[in-house]
Design brief:
The complex is a heterotrimer of chains A (309), B (228) and C (367). With 228 residues, chain B is mostly helical. Helices cover 78% and strands 0% of the residues of chain B. Chain B has a single domain, classed as MetI-like fold, CATH 1.10.3720.10. In chain B, helix 2 crosses helix 5. The chains are: A alpha/beta (309), B mainly alpha (228), C alpha+beta (367).
Chain lengths: 309, 228, 367
């Protein structure tokens, strides 16, 4: 057996190295005291970095371990329905209403009022596209600009799909939902005219992914897309797209937080709601990104725009 | 090509500076995939021995199914685990979805067919005469199995290495059942996926290189064991 | 049914097949304690199968096996316990990919032997087979002869009650063969181990064994000591196998107090036998018992025939000479004799052999 000793020693050394490395990188996320709160958020709130920014503050303030998973609004609400997360932050009023109607939500308290859906920030959707603006939507005026822009894109796109293109989220997200609303308001049957014919005609593309990926794709294809302003500003550095349409009632984008009834941490979830609407956090939200981008990515809660409570 | 070179330098930079976030996700990747590989091996080596050394009706069909499952998409395994362990699902009361534990379970399910298939193959490579010789020297059933495993140790360890490789490199399952949550379930592969989606290709490639580098270290160590 | 007290292994009515092929057909054999038994037969006769069944590696299709007087069950833990009292050296040794020491120590470890005692035993046995100093070598790097010795050591170190050997020297050069044969005999003498050895080398069987069994076509055609087998085969098949090249058909003409005259064609051979007259028989003569000479005067042998050489085949120091003396006869003589007598085709010679060297077999007694 003597001849085996060097090899045994080497094996032991190897195992020791692995153990050492593992111990060294044990890292955060293993604490037992703070209470775990799981939140599913829409990707637009996440890819901008806002959640990372707010996460540490909330964890310190409420002694929590905030675990955030970023999905499309559809997937986030699904997790909320099952109770796999304790709260959701999304931006699709229609589907939020359905969620609440389906009895998946718990009422939260804010300003001494009880409500299932609590809004806490807003910004605008914008239509971005290539600087050359082949469909000519950049100089539209009047009311109903978003709808007119979409119409022009459809007409020009059908005529020349190699030059005028549109990239969609296609993932049942809040942004995708808003896009569909605008198509409908423009007089189209989304499924038949846009998703069906548009794809077949070669000017309409669906990525099925988050805002960042969709913006990147639109950039590559030199296409138009609908995006929330916050995410666009965050990505502007690596994109050649420019904002072309930023006015219109339909372009408002309101973020809300909902406590999930099937979740396990209703109290901590309430803490999150209180946190998001607390004045100092609202101030932080308002100032987020200004030093970097020159403009705010989000606007704090405004009862006139977001509604009550 | 410049992107690749930039990515390479970025990878070096992240490693040398011991960037804390990179260290954290690297450690988690190793922990999760190492655990799943170890546990799966502990289960699959005896199980494969059992299948190999016994004749039973349907054995061929079973091996066929095992080999078919080599091709299972990782996201499918993720869906399976998701449906099983979601709070709305049958095993929801464990509450382990969106935790590293779920990722370990998912990866174990993923690499089990691989380990079983290749360990059975390794055992088949040991000639029947060796088994006969052991039997005639008075080895009991278990002693014979242990001997055959030792004779096939090179190939068995190769199977384990492959299992580890598949576990640490997969995205679909980890993303779905883990949720890519910072500080909790974020690993190298889910980060690569996220950064790619965000358009930061340089960082994504750099992370990929780091993952390969880790795999190189692990494999070198395991190779040493293999040479014994 | 009483078994002889000294029987250690006995098989009764043993039959076995591989798929469609019947390998063993209704075999009966009893081996005594301390006996060295050689199982000879052509390749494919079933020797290996018989040994495997005796080692309890396989369960026979039909028949019973007794070990030390007790019947062995067809399954169960008892088989392992008995198997541990038997050792089997296979035809092509399968060496484990371990060191020589670990290979030899395997069986002892499996039986739960103490570590210190294992070391002592292994060292001793390695010395016995002439492989001291090979302890830490990787066993797979050894030559054929060395590997065979490791396999032998591996089995011998277990001090089995019964040692089964399947063609132990089949793949070895003459020097290694001699070494192994020496080793086998000395072990047999020292430990009084029962040995059953399968071999197609008849001289090896003759040399080493107390008793020989001839296995032909799945059946034990004859058992007995060397003289019985080689000089008094019981039927034509065995006779052919043991090298009695001269098997001549004839009829007993007369029996005079144990000396028979057998008519063969136009000639007559004198032999020693109890066979009565008018019986159809085979007269068998070993080729080495036939002497060739240029005249008949000096011999006292009763049989001498005038013959003509039809063929001469020289292999090494011996020559096989075929002659025609009314019937075909084969003689085995030295090369020197061939030269001295100037034996070549068509040469006229006399074939001479004693009556005592002619073995008479009744025709019709076979199987």
């Amino acid at each position: 057996m003597k001849g085996n000793w060097p090899k045994i020693a080497l094996a032991v050394l190897g195992i020791a190295v692995i153990v050492l490395v593992l111990v060294m990188v044990l890292g955060r996320g293993g604490q037992t005291e703070p209470e775990v709160l799981k939140v599913a958020t829409t990707t637009s709130l996440y890819d901008t970095g806002l959640w990372d920014y707010l996460e540490d503050i909330f964890e310190d303030r409420c002694n929590a371990d905030l675990q955030i998973t970023a999905k499309g609004t559809g997937a986030a609400l699904e997790l909320g329905m099952n109770g796999d997360v304790d709260a959701v932050t999304v931006h699709d009023p229609d589907r939020e209403a359905a969620f609440i109607a389906g009895n998946y939500s718990l009422n939260a308290t804010v300003n001494n009022t009880s409500a299932a859906r609590v809004t806490w920030a807003y910004n605008y959707f914008i239509i971005v596209g290539p600087e050359s603006d082949p469909a000519g939507i950049g100089n539209l005026t009047g009311s109903g600009v978003p709808e007119e822009a979409f119409q022009k894109i459809q007409i020009e796109g059908k005529a020349d799909p190699d030059t005028v293109r549109f990239v969609s989220r296609g993932d049942e997200s809040g942004t995708h939902g808003k896009e569909k609303v605008i198509w409908a308001a423009s007089g189209y049957n989304y499924t038949a005219d846009i998703l069906g014919n548009g794809t077949a005609q070669g000017w309409y593309f669906s990525t099925g992914q988050g805002m960042g990926a969709t913006l990147t794709t639109a950039n590559q294809l030199l296409a138009y897309t609908l995006t929330d302003k916050g995410t666009f500003l965050a990505y502007q550095g690596s994109l050649d797209l420019v904002p072309l349409v930023d006015t219109g009632d339909d372009l408002i984008n309101i973020y809300s937080v909902i406590i999930c009834k099937n979740g396990t941490k209703p109290e901590m979830a309430q803490n999150l709601v209180t946190f998001l609407r607390s004045p100092d956090i609202q101030a932080l939200v308002a100032g987020f990104g200004v030093p970097q981008y020159g403009q705010p990515l989000f606007y704090p809660w405004d009862p006139g725009i977001c509604g009550l409570p | 090509m410049t992107e690749l070179w930039q990515a390479f330098t970025k990878a070096l930079e992240l490693l040398v500076s011991l960037n804390p976030e990179v260290i954290e996700i690297a450690g988690r990747s190793l922990r999760i995939s190492g655990t799943s590989c170890l546990l799966a091996s502990l289960i699959c080596i005896p199980l494969a021995s059992l299948i190999h050394f016994h004749q039973f009706p349907g054995k061929r069909a079973l091996i066929n199914i095992i080999q078919t499952l080599f091709s299972v998409p990782t996201v499918l395994v993720g869906l399976f685990v998701f449906v099983l362990f979601s709070r709305a699902g049958p095993l929801g009361f464990f509450g382990i979805l969106l935790t590293p534990t779920a990722m370990v379970i998912g990866q174990m399910i993923l690499i089990t067919p691989l380990l079983l298939g290749f360990i059975i193959s390794a055992l088949s490579g040991v000639s029947k005469e060796i088994v006969d010789t052991a039997t005639s020297l008075g080895a009991s059933g278990f002693q014979t199995i242990w001997l055959v495993l030792r004779e096939a140790r090179y190939a068995v360890l190769a199977a384990v290495i492959m299992g580890f490789g598949r576990a640490i490199s997969e995205v679909g399952c980890a993303l779905l059942v883990g949720g890519n949550m910072r500080g909790v379930t974020r690993v190298i592969t889910t980060t690569i996926s996220m950064e790619t989606a965000k358009g930061d290709f340089e960082l994504a490639i750099a992370l990929g290189m780091i993952l390969l580098f880790l795999a190189l270290i692990i494999n070198t160590i395991l190779n040493r064991l293999q040479q014994r | 049914m009483m078994k002889p007290l000294s029987s250690i292994i006995e098989v009764v009515d043993l039959s076995h097949s591989y798929g469609e092929r019947e390998i063993l057909k209704g075999l009966n054999l009893s081996i005594g304690k301390g006996e060295v038994f050689a199982l000879i037969g052509p390749t494919g006769a079933g020797k290996t199968t018989l040994l495997r069944i005796m080692d309890l590696l396989e369960v026979p299709a039909a028949g019973k096996i007794y070990f030390d007087g007790k019947c062995i069950p067809r399954s169960g833990k008892q088989r392992l316990e008995i198997r541990r009292r038997i050792s089997f050296v296979h035809q092509k040794p399968q060496i484990f990919s371990l060191s020589v020491y670990d290979n030899v120590a395997c069986g002892l470890r499996w039986r739960g032997e103490e570590k210190n005692r294992i070391a002592g035993k292994v060292d001793h046995i390695l010395e016995m087979v002439g492989l001291e100093g090979y302890k830490n070598r990787k066993a797979r790097t050894l030559s054929g002869g060395e590997a065979q010795r490791v396999a032998l050591a591996r089995s011998l170190v277990l001090e089995p009650e019964v040692l089964l050997l399947d063609e132990p020297t089949a793949n070895l050069d003459p020097v290694s063969t001699a070494k192994i044969e020496q080793l086998i005999s000395s072990v047999a003498r020292q430990h009084n181990t029962t040995m059953i050895m399968a071999t197609h080398d008849m001289s090896q069987g003759q040399q080493l064994a107390d008793r020989i069994g001839v296995l032909l076509d799945g059946k034990l055609a004859q058992t007995g000591d060397a003289t019985d087998i080689f000089r008094s085969p019981q039927n034509e098949q065995v006779a052919r196998f043991v090298g009695m090249e001269n098997i001549i058909e004839g009829v007993v003409i007369a029996n005079n107090e144990g000396i028979v005259t057998v008519g063969i064609g136009g000639s007559a051979i004198q032999a020693v036998s109890n066979c009565p007259a008018a019986k159809a028989v085979y007269a068998c003569i070993r080729p080495e018992e036939v002497t060739l000479a240029l005249s008949t005067t000096q011999s006292s042998a009763r049989n001498s025939f005038h013959a003509k050489v039809t063929r001469v085949n020289t292999i090494g120091p011996l020559s096989r000479v075929e002659i025609d003396c009314g019937f075909r006869l084969v003689a085995l003589v030295t090369r020197i004799s061939v030269e001295e007598l100037n034996l070549q085709v068509d040469r006229e010679v006399y074939a001479i052999f004693k009556a005592t060297t002619v073995h008479i077999m009744e025709k019709g007694i076979s199987k």
